[in-house]
Amino acid sequence: MSVIDNHAADSRARRAVRTSGLQLACLVISVGFFALPLVYLALQAFKTNNEFLNNPTGLPHPWTVSNFSDAWNEGDFSNEMVNSLLYAIIPDVVTLVLGVFLAFPISRGWFKHSNALYGFFVFSGFLPAGLIPLFIEAQKIGTYNSRIGYLIMTSLTGAGFFFFVGYIKTIPREMDEAAALDGCGYIRYIFTMIIPQMKPALATFGIFGFVAGWNNLILPLVMLNDQSLWPVTRGLFSFFGQYSSQWPLVAAATIIVALPILVVFAILQRNLVEGVAGGAAAGSGGVAVRQNPENTQ
Amino acid sequence: MSTIPFGTKRTRRWLPWASIAVPTIGWLVFGLFPSVSTVFFSFTEYSGFPGTPLHFCGLCNYSNAFNSSWSDFSASVTVTLKYVAGVTVLQIAIGLGLALLLRHRRRGFGFYRALIFMPQIFSVTIVGVLFSLVFDPQNGPAEPILHGAFGINTAFLGDKNWALSLVVLINVWMFSGYTMLVYIAALRRIPPELYEAASLDGAGRFRTFRHITWPLLANATTVNVFLTAMGCVGEYALIRVLTDGNYGTKTLGMYMFDTAFGVNPSLGYGSMLAVAQFVITLVIGSALLVFLRRREVTL
User: For the whole model, what pTM was predicted?
Assistant: First the structure.
């Protein structure tokens, strides 16, 4: 009996060791490779420039916070934060609503060639990048170097549309007919019935759209010339070029720019992670967060 | 075709069209039209400065690519192919490794997965600045580590033997979390009975992976390889921040951006490069799909 007991205890102990070994490996990899670089950067932001040059790899001593206020003022980040919020939120919301208005009639088959229309939209996603003609066009029609122009260009894309078509098909048609019989108008129906039913899909695309809009660097680089119009990504890029010799200041600016998106991530990481897993499960892969400017126009 | 229940007899006909009008027009003006006119501009000579003329010059940009600019053009194609191959292979391998490690529902694992997924929510500007610091040859932490361990001196992102590999690694760092999540979702769909049967048959860990896990992940591998490769063929935003296309990192996309929006802009030649990039994307994409689909069947 004791032999069996010993054996059981032994294997349990071995399993415990193996589990903790696995835990340790996961911890080291995820924290060491994926979080440590950021932590390292954050540490530099608390050093003075002299201290950084004397001791670039050590801990700050003493901790200084003046880099943050200096970076905030010199980089004009207060203005750029407002721009970034505008460029991330407005196109995101408009795109989602327009996407529903585009997807609803197509998924219901109210056109002679609904499927052909759908195929055409899908196909157009594979055409060459239109960044250069868009730049020429923007100069011609006056959306170049303008806040409103930038918002118009980024709002009228219909992102998420393909996914929406499939999603709306799961909402029964009988609901449309019942609502119409009760005298519900088309626009009211979409806002009060369809959109609430699509909450999970809209939330996922809303988050990814916000992140993509906030992070876009190439389009602001091409389309926005005046510093007063820049979002933080563009601002940080120039700041980095200007102060590249002062790492603590650049580190502070980077943390300032990274912090809002990090907070969003901390709150919504479950939705983001599930969004990817769900997209993969559906086999669509349609929720990639790739920041291809060609695709976010 | 079904009929719309909304609206009166009169409005019924145009109501669906009105619904799609704004997004469709927006997409035509800012999506389809620029895309298609890239091909048109690739046949022209145009600097893009206001007031300068636009010359139609036939195939001049294409012939330039194969004659006077051949060395630049061929170099950028080579860099692009290396970049795509490097990122795809590494990201699949690392993403799969991470997925195997973190697939279980255990305490703390959700946090680890979130950390690994985190880099891709950052702008390329943040990631670019971050790794410019890490690989700063004077004051970065990578230099003393590498020098201490291997006695190697290098300028990292400023060294033409290192820069491309580092940019590839940074790209993989940024997006391997996505690959991992797709693999984890697929791993969880593998029926556990298969593993029980395998262990009853005395199959070791490697054989189980080789004969059960890997074949059943074929679908996920197709998705991952395709998305990764297609996502990085046109990459240049990250490269723009890290090396600005110097030290052997000028991909076709970077070359296009440089040509069109650099010091001496040539929008015509840049458009030709965008078309070339499109052709390469198409070739790689269809080759991958054919290969991966066939592989799924035989596995």
Answer: 0.89
